[in-house]
Design a protein that fits this description.
mainly beta; 1 helix; 10 strands
Length: 123
């Protein structure tokens, strides 16, 4: 289970971030997770205070994801203590979480439907 463990609100996109952690016992795919503010849900507008991960990366148990508001290239790195951290970016030019009051949520995929070609019939 990926959970929000920290939030740094700041006027600077380089200093603003959401810290996530895989608190489960299995590696989890980050793809499909959504960080969204309560305000975005209330206004039914995910364009200003939400981020959907399209990163096709597996997060090991206990490891972190740092979602920065600013621009950058996604990558893995290690902390001074040796923990793995995956850096992801919203690529925004202005602060997001600094303007939002209220809770943040992380939503994950519960089910995925993929269109499949018709099965061949055996004769």
């Amino acid at each position: 289970m990926i959970r929000i463990v920290g939030l740094q609100r700041n006027e600077s996109t380089a200093q603003e971030f959401v810290l996530l952690q895989n608190q489960g016992s299995l590696r989890l795919s980050l793809r499909g997770h959504l960080v969204v503010s309560d305000a975005a849900i209330e206004h039914a507008d995910l364009s200003f205070a939400a981020h959907a991960f399209n990163d096709d990366v597996l997060i090991p148990p206990g490891m972190y994801v740092l979602l920065s508001t600013g621009r950058g290239t996604p990558r893995w790195t290690r902390t001074k203590e040796g923990a793995l951290v995956y850096y992801a970016y919203m690529n925004r030019d202005s602060a997001v979480w600094d303007r939002i009051v209220g809770p943040l949520h992380i939503l994950c995929t519960q089910h995925t439907f993929t269109e499949r070609p018709p099965a061949l019939l055996l004769r």
